[in-house]
Amino acid sequence: MTNPNLIIFYVKDPAESTPFYRDLLGHEPAFASPNFVAFSLNNGFSLGLWRRSSVEPQPSAIGNRGELGFMVEGAGAVEQHYKDWKARGLPIAQELTTMDFGPTFVVLDPDGHRLRVCEPDK
């Protein structure tokens, strides 16, 4: 069985995006080169930041065509993350709201990638 374990965001410059994710994730990257930086995540996944100009084959389009979700558990955990991330000055794309699946909000990284916080499915 094949298990996906790497999420890649195409970024303008990994060196510019690294401080954002270092602060957000609370740790240093596991790998760093001029064109690619990888952060290990606690669930066995890695988040890669790949310099857009060096991606092969070149992507056909860029933009908000997906999101990276952070599912947090516990009463008030989504609201606490919202307050923390807003206090850090992260750009809010969707204010804290309740949708069909529960409380949620969205922030943007330096390249405009959407990062959604929500509760896990119950």
Task: Give a description of the structure.
The structure is a single chain. The strands form two sheets. This protein has a four-stranded mixed beta sheet, covered by helices on one side. It has helices spanning 14-25, 77-87, and strands at 6-11, 31-32, 36-40, 46-51, 67-71, 92-99, 102-108, 114-118. The chain has two helices and eight strands. The two termini are 26 Å apart. It folds into two domains: 1-61, Signal recognition particle alu RNA binding heterodimer, srp9/1; 62-121, 2,3-Dihydroxybiphenyl 1,2-Dioxygenase, domain 1 (Roll), CATH 3.10.180. It is 19% helix and 36% strand. With 122 residues, it is an alpha/beta fold. The longest helix is centred in the N-terminal third of the chain and has 12 residues, at 14-25.
Notable characteristics:
122 residues, alpha/beta, Signal recognition particle alu RNA binding heterodimer, srp9/1, 2,3-Dihydroxybiphenyl 1,2-Dioxygenase, domain 1, 2 domains, four-stranded mixed β-sheet, 2 helices, 19% helix, oxidoreductase, dioxygenase activity, Catechol 2,3-dioxygenase
Layout of secondary structure:
Elements: E1 6-11, H1 14-25, E2 31-32, E3 36-40, E4 46-51, E5 67-71, H2 77-87, E6 92-99, E7 102-108, E8 114-118
Parallel strand pairs: 1-4, 5-8
Antiparallel strand pairs: 2-3, 3-4, 6-7, 7-8
Give a brief description.
This protein is an alpha/beta fold. The chain has 2 helices and 8 strands, in the order βαββββαβββ.
Helix content: 10-25%
Total tally of structural domains:
2
Termini separation (Å)? 26 Å
CATH fold type of the largest domain: Signal recognition particle alu RNA binding heterodimer, srp9/1
Shape: globular
What is the succession of H and E elements? Answer: EHEEEEHEEE
- Average pLDDT, rounded to a whole number, is 93
Protein name: Catechol 2,3-dioxygenase
Domain VOC: 3-120
Keywords: Dioxygenase, Oxidoreductase
InterPro entries: Glyas_Bleomycin-R_OHBP_Dase (IPR029068), Glyas_Fos-R_dOase_dom (IPR004360), Glyoxalase/dOase/EhpR (IPR026275), VOC_core (IPR037523)
